[in-house]
Amino acid sequence: MSKAFTKDDDAAPPPLVPRRAPLPAGQPNYVTLRGLSALRAELVALRAEHGAQGARGEGPLDTALLERLAELEERLATAELVTPPTPAPPEARFGATVTVLTEAGAERTYSIVGVDEADAGAGRIAFVAPLSRALLGKRAGDTATVRTPHGSDELEVLRVSYEQADSSTDA
Questions:
Q1: Which of 77, 84, 97, 99 could form a disulfide with 159, with the two C-beta atoms 3.0–4.6 Å apart?
Q2: For 69-95, what is each residue's pLDDT tens digit?
Q3: Where in the sequence is the domain holding 32, given as residue range(s)?
Q4: pTM here?
Q5: Which residue, of 83, 104, 124, is where some domain finishes?
Q6: pLDDT, tens digit, 9 for 90 and up, residues 8-46
Q7: Residue 153 CA, distance from chain mean position
Protein backbone atom coordinates (compact mmCIF):
# COMPACT_ATOMS: atom_id res chain seq x y z
CA MET A 1 0.00 0.00 0.00
CA SER A 2 1.24 3.46 -0.84
CA LYS A 3 2.40 5.62 2.06
CA ALA A 4 -0.02 8.26 0.76
CA PHE A 5 -2.93 6.20 2.09
CA THR A 6 -1.63 5.57 5.60
CA LYS A 7 -2.23 7.65 8.70
CA ASP A 8 1.43 8.08 9.59
CA ASP A 9 1.22 11.74 8.57
CA ASP A 10 -1.68 12.57 10.89
CA ALA A 11 0.38 14.10 13.67
CA ALA A 12 -1.54 16.76 15.53
CA PRO A 13 -0.55 20.26 14.53
CA PRO A 14 1.47 22.14 17.13
CA PRO A 15 -0.71 24.27 19.40
CA LEU A 16 -1.10 27.89 18.40
CA VAL A 17 0.47 29.89 21.19
CA PRO A 18 -0.28 33.58 20.75
CA ARG A 19 2.22 36.13 21.98
CA ARG A 20 1.03 38.54 24.63
CA ALA A 21 1.10 42.26 24.15
CA PRO A 22 4.18 43.60 25.89
CA LEU A 23 3.73 45.38 29.17
CA PRO A 24 5.17 48.88 28.77
CA ALA A 25 8.44 49.39 30.63
CA GLY A 26 7.92 50.63 34.15
CA GLN A 27 4.19 49.81 34.20
CA PRO A 28 2.87 47.53 36.93
CA ASN A 29 1.16 44.35 35.74
CA TYR A 30 -2.33 45.17 37.00
CA VAL A 31 -4.96 42.46 36.58
CA THR A 32 -8.61 42.10 37.46
CA LEU A 33 -9.86 38.99 39.24
CA ARG A 34 -11.26 37.80 35.90
CA GLY A 35 -7.89 38.38 34.23
CA LEU A 36 -5.96 36.61 36.98
CA SER A 37 -8.28 33.60 36.75
CA ALA A 38 -7.84 33.49 32.96
CA LEU A 39 -4.04 33.61 33.28
CA ARG A 40 -4.08 30.78 35.81
CA ALA A 41 -6.38 28.67 33.60
CA GLU A 42 -4.14 29.27 30.60
CA LEU A 43 -1.09 28.21 32.60
CA VAL A 44 -2.80 24.96 33.64
CA ALA A 45 -3.75 24.26 29.99
CA LEU A 46 -0.25 24.98 28.69
CA ARG A 47 1.35 22.81 31.38
CA ALA A 48 -1.02 20.00 30.42
CA GLU A 49 -0.06 20.39 26.74
CA HIS A 50 3.62 20.41 27.70
CA GLY A 51 3.13 17.22 29.73
CA ALA A 52 1.18 15.60 26.89
CA GLN A 53 3.97 16.35 24.42
CA GLY A 54 6.48 14.70 26.72
CA ALA A 55 4.22 11.70 27.33
CA ARG A 56 3.74 11.20 23.60
CA GLY A 57 7.52 10.99 23.27
CA GLU A 58 7.53 13.63 20.60
CA GLY A 59 10.89 14.96 19.51
CA PRO A 60 12.09 18.24 20.92
CA LEU A 61 9.33 20.04 22.76
CA ASP A 62 7.68 22.92 20.96
CA THR A 63 9.89 25.96 21.55
CA ALA A 64 6.98 28.40 21.24
CA LEU A 65 5.10 26.50 23.93
CA LEU A 66 8.10 26.58 26.28
CA GLU A 67 8.59 30.31 25.66
CA ARG A 68 4.90 30.97 26.32
CA LEU A 69 5.03 28.96 29.55
CA ALA A 70 7.98 31.01 30.78
CA GLU A 71 6.30 34.26 29.75
CA LEU A 72 3.04 33.30 31.43
CA GLU A 73 4.79 32.25 34.64
CA GLU A 74 6.56 35.62 34.72
CA ARG A 75 3.29 37.50 34.13
CA LEU A 76 1.65 35.62 36.97
CA ALA A 77 4.63 36.26 39.27
CA THR A 78 4.39 40.02 38.62
CA ALA A 79 0.57 40.26 38.56
CA GLU A 80 -0.90 42.85 40.91
CA LEU A 81 -4.56 42.10 41.59
CA VAL A 82 -6.70 45.21 41.67
CA THR A 83 -10.13 44.65 43.17
CA PRO A 84 -13.07 46.98 42.63
CA PRO A 85 -13.11 49.73 45.24
CA THR A 86 -15.89 49.73 47.81
CA PRO A 87 -17.81 51.91 47.68
CA ALA A 88 -17.43 52.32 43.94
CA PRO A 89 -16.02 55.74 43.07
CA PRO A 90 -17.89 57.90 40.58
CA GLU A 91 -14.85 58.25 38.30
CA ALA A 92 -13.33 55.70 35.94
CA ARG A 93 -10.40 53.77 37.36
CA PHE A 94 -8.80 50.43 36.61
CA GLY A 95 -11.54 47.78 36.52
CA ALA A 96 -14.31 50.24 35.63
CA THR A 97 -16.87 49.69 32.91
CA VAL A 98 -17.50 52.98 31.13
CA THR A 99 -20.39 53.66 28.75
CA VAL A 100 -19.84 56.56 26.37
CA LEU A 101 -21.73 58.34 23.63
CA THR A 102 -19.70 58.98 20.48
CA GLU A 103 -19.93 62.09 18.32
CA ALA A 104 -21.88 59.97 15.82
CA GLY A 105 -24.48 59.21 18.51
CA ALA A 106 -23.51 55.58 19.13
CA GLU A 107 -23.29 54.15 22.64
CA ARG A 108 -20.16 52.12 23.35
CA THR A 109 -19.18 50.29 26.52
CA TYR A 110 -15.57 49.62 27.52
CA SER A 111 -14.03 47.87 30.49
CA ILE A 112 -10.59 49.06 31.60
CA VAL A 113 -8.53 45.93 32.24
CA GLY A 114 -5.00 44.55 32.37
CA VAL A 115 -2.81 44.15 29.30
CA ASP A 116 -3.23 40.36 29.21
CA GLU A 117 -7.01 40.41 29.24
CA ALA A 118 -7.51 43.22 26.74
CA ASP A 119 -9.78 42.31 23.82
CA ALA A 120 -10.94 45.34 21.87
CA GLY A 121 -13.59 43.31 20.04
CA ALA A 122 -15.18 42.44 23.39
CA GLY A 123 -14.89 46.01 24.69
CA ARG A 124 -12.05 45.23 27.11
CA ILE A 125 -9.26 47.77 26.73
CA ALA A 126 -5.86 47.75 28.40
CA PHE A 127 -5.34 50.44 31.01
CA VAL A 128 -2.31 51.68 29.04
CA ALA A 129 -4.27 52.15 25.78
CA PRO A 130 -4.94 55.72 24.61
CA LEU A 131 -8.71 55.26 24.98
CA SER A 132 -8.31 54.06 28.58
CA ARG A 133 -5.99 56.93 29.42
CA ALA A 134 -8.59 59.36 28.04
CA LEU A 135 -11.35 57.78 30.15
CA LEU A 136 -9.44 57.40 33.43
CA GLY A 137 -10.64 59.93 36.00
CA LYS A 138 -13.80 60.81 34.05
CA ARG A 139 -17.27 60.79 35.57
CA ALA A 140 -20.76 60.62 34.08
CA GLY A 141 -21.36 63.87 32.23
CA ASP A 142 -17.65 64.48 31.49
CA THR A 143 -16.22 64.42 27.99
CA ALA A 144 -13.06 62.64 26.94
CA THR A 145 -11.01 63.48 23.89
CA VAL A 146 -9.41 60.52 22.17
CA ARG A 147 -6.81 61.04 19.47
CA THR A 148 -7.22 58.71 16.52
CA PRO A 149 -5.42 58.35 13.18
CA HIS A 150 -8.26 60.41 11.68
CA GLY A 151 -8.10 63.27 14.18
CA SER A 152 -9.75 63.27 17.56
CA ASP A 153 -13.10 62.10 18.86
CA GLU A 154 -15.12 63.56 21.70
CA LEU A 155 -16.82 60.99 23.89
CA GLU A 156 -19.46 61.86 26.46
CA VAL A 157 -19.29 59.62 29.53
CA LEU A 158 -22.77 58.31 30.28
CA ARG A 159 -22.07 55.79 33.06
CA VAL A 160 -19.21 54.46 35.16
CA SER A 161 -19.72 51.20 37.03
CA TYR A 162 -17.71 48.49 38.73
CA GLU A 163 -18.43 44.79 38.85
CA GLN A 164 -18.04 43.70 42.43
CA ALA A 165 -16.02 40.53 42.95
CA ASP A 166 -17.91 37.45 44.05
CA SER A 167 -16.88 36.87 47.66
CA SER A 168 -16.91 33.12 47.08
CA THR A 169 -14.32 33.39 44.29
CA ASP A 170 -10.86 32.19 45.21
CA ALA A 171 -8.22 34.74 44.31
A1: 99
A2: 999 999 999 999 999 888 999 999 999
A3: 28-83
A4: 0.78
A5: 83
A6: 444 555 445 455 677 888 889 999 999 999 999 999 998
A7: 24
